[in-house]
Amino acid sequence: MPETIYDEVRYSNFPYAQTHPDRLATVAMLHGIEPPDPFSARVLEIGCGAGGNMLAMAAATPGLKAVGVDLAATPIAEAQQAVQEIGLTNAEFHQADVRDLTTGALGQFDYVIAHGVYGWMPEEADDALLATIKASLTPAGIAYVSFNAQPGGYFRRMLRDAGLWHARKEETLLAKAEKAQELYIFLKEHRISDADTYGALLGREVPVLADAPSYRLVHDDLGDSWTPRWFGEFAEHAAGHGLGYVGEADLFSLRSEMLPDGVEPQVWNLADGDRVAFEHLSDVLTARHFRQSVICHAGRDASADASPVQAQRLHWAVRPNAEPFEVGLTADAFRVLDARRPRAVSFEALREELGAEPMALAEALLDGFRRERLMPHAGPLRAAEEPGERPTASRLARWQAARGADMVSLAYMRVRMEEPAARVLITLLDGTRDRAAIQADLKAAVGFEIGLEDLERNLVELARLFLLEP
Question: Which GO molecular function terms does the record list (predicted)?
């Protein structure tokens, strides 16, 4: 296959929490759709790059089978090498063109992910993507497709076109990105007042482009294929392939609070009660510019809003940096969950501890969710709560710690470890060493001794960061 721009300019290689089967299953359950077990699923990612998303998924969920495909040969080769070096047995990567996968050549999958693909390819490839999803999904399967949305895309297109014109004389992709960013930085520093409509729009969009790394500008904003879609257009395209809309993987996009107070019933009225029309009109009202849509086989009726009945099937956790509630059952639930932060607690365990009536607790949890302080999950997190006698860091974390400061936790969160000694410590946590052995080997590696109390504090912190396996 010919070289692609992803061979020439590499993209970031980190996971996207909103694509994890736990998140997709949660969205499906909130909308009344029964998903496959997200922790023993077969998962396909189309456009996986160097595999950062699927490597993290496979490392965090041993019962899951992760398969990644990408058109670019260089990233796929790196992903394949990483599988060998980390020692993963539940991940594999293949170089492939999505246009060759429309008959489901890779088999059936419970979850299919396409992040940053739809709308960033030629039109026929977008069509092939949806055909591949349809052919590859199991009957109960769930898929994720992100795309640039309208009408917010119109303003981003203006900035894209301005940047491309400013960089018109540059020859290479990176040079074009750097020249375009020169303009974005200028606009950020010298735009007209926020009191002016145009200035306010620049103030919302330009900083994102001015501060973006060059590789992101190359691929996300300045590439040859860049086609934002209206939601109704996307839904119609999906329906043409026998696929129906479930909800948004950005969980807080599910909330009617995104609309102005009291407007939601009027939007439903304007939409004549049609779900697709409601979503489309909501985008018009809020100038939405990006969607992370969850879809499934057509004919499975998804509810428009989160159900208290479905909330009782989920696990619940406090969001990072969330402020507590002051009074009421929501405050009581927050207090219990906060004591276990950031772990997720089953609804039943929470109900028993609080002695609450099920529907009342479900409504309280949904209230906390709508106010962006509580987060639902399809199941519990697989990570050690305490370091244990012979602590074991995840294989992925040990591999990443040996290569730099950035790593991914078992909770699918990015962790940056600047201190070299801390990274060496992580590489030593392979489950074979007790505290004395860790101290001795750490001293040999870094040249100074760490006391037992300091070691224990560091191990507890690693457990808190979800870097230790159970």
Answer: methyltransferase activity
